[in-house]
Amino acid sequence: MTNMAEETSRFLGSVAKLPQIPSGCGILTHHVSKVVWKTTDPILRDFLYWMMRCSQFQLHCRYFGTGTTVYAVKGKDVERYLVNSYPTEEQQALVHVLNQLSNLQQEVHSMLERLEEQIGGLFRSWFIDFDAVKAKAEGKLLYGLDDETAALFPDSFENSEIGPIPTGWRVGMMEDVLSQKQDSTTPGEHLSTRHYVPIDNIDSKSLTLKNWLPYTDAASSLILFSKNDLLFGAMRPYFHKVTIAPFDGITRSTCFVFVPKVQGTLGFSLCLLNLDSTIRYATDSSLGSTMPYATWKKGLARHKTVLPPPKIMVAFSNAIAPHIEKIRDGGVMIRSLSSTRDALLLRMMSGEPKRAEVIT
Predict the structure, then answer these.
(1) How far is it, in rounded angstroms, from Cα 106 to Cα 174?
(2) Do the Cβ atoms of 201 and 212 come closer than 8 Å?
(3) Of 248, 214, 247, 240, whose CA–CA distance to 331 is shortest?
């Protein structure tokens, strides 16, 4: 549980369960406290955990928090939070559903991670390691590649300015693959059908967009984007923020908005943009020291990369299209599960509360 938080104290009293740690031990910072149960009853433990996930618990911690720029709450004040001495039958049923929702969310997160690993591995195989070309050069067929797709690949290499590349391929630039959209707008009711996605709401090293805000939070330097557009965190690009839009929305100029230049190459474009080498180039060519910003025309757009013929880019994008769709829509599913969880937590806040003397 976070026992200290800066400025707005927004995260004060946030609670999370520790995963299974192989070594059996871990390290906490002074901002986090370990909650130790005085009860061995699993029903009561789960009930108390979910009660501490309620917004009222965070409000309780903020109320008893002390400090100016850094807020802290003491253990004895945490123990003042009032809950039922034992969950009612309805609360036990709600806890069961909440546990199931939590497990489902974890499964969705794990699925999305696996999908990203799979498309990243396939991209590396086709366009970095050139496994299909190497296999054809040896008279073999790359595993998982059908005859029609395999026929698109050459069976030899040729020299280029960056080293050997498949015959018939070329060295191009990011601007050959992506176009930047700069559809600026102003705040107002005309944005009511869109969601607002500032750069802080894009997770690092995750292609799935899981967080967004209402359009009323959008204030200045706004840019429109559409479903399936690619968002790239331009401010401090080393944080590696790349995602595919699951809906029409609004972001700020701290993000680039891209669309593929070649029709049908969304998957190829997304994987290329998400490469660590792309992030390094964006970082190295950025402007500013304390708050670096990536540039497009004189920066990332000039990043050299090996480009196959468009037919291969399209074939790759078609092959991973089902994965891309799940990655894109996974955040909406997680958000829906979170909304259901929050509604159930509100229902669980009932009954005659007593002091929570089963935690320290």
Answers:
(1) 35
(2) yes
(3) 247
Beta strand 82-83 with 242-244: parallel, antiparallel or unpaired?
A: unpaired
Residue 360: band (very low, low, confident or very high) from pLDDT cuts 50, 70, 90: very low
Is 295 within 8 Å of 249 (Cβ atoms)? no
Q: At 241, list the tokens.
A: 């923020």
Alpha helix positions (H), 128-262: 131-137, 147-150
Residues 12 and 73 sit within 8 Å (Cβ to Cβ): yes
The whole-model pTM stands at 0.87
| Residue 53, amino acid | R
DSSP state of 259: E
> pLDDT, tens digit, for every residue of 312-327?
999 999 999 999 999 9
Per-residue pLDDT tens for 333-342? 999 999 999 9
Residue % of the chain over a pLDDT of 90: 70
Q: Which of 335, 10, 343, 344 is nearest to 195 (CA)?
A: 335
Give the residue from 275, 211, 183, 197 showing the smallest Cα distance to 237.
275
Of 74-88, 180-194, 242-256, 283-297, least confident by mean pLDDT is: 74-88
Query: For the chain, what are the domain ranges?
Result: 4-98+337-355, 118-334
Q: φ, ψ for residue 25 (rounded to 5)?
A: -145, 160
Distance CA 357, CA 351 (A): 17
Question: Does 118-334 carry CATH code 3.30.870.10?
Answer: no
- Which pair of tokens denotes residue 276? 């660590």
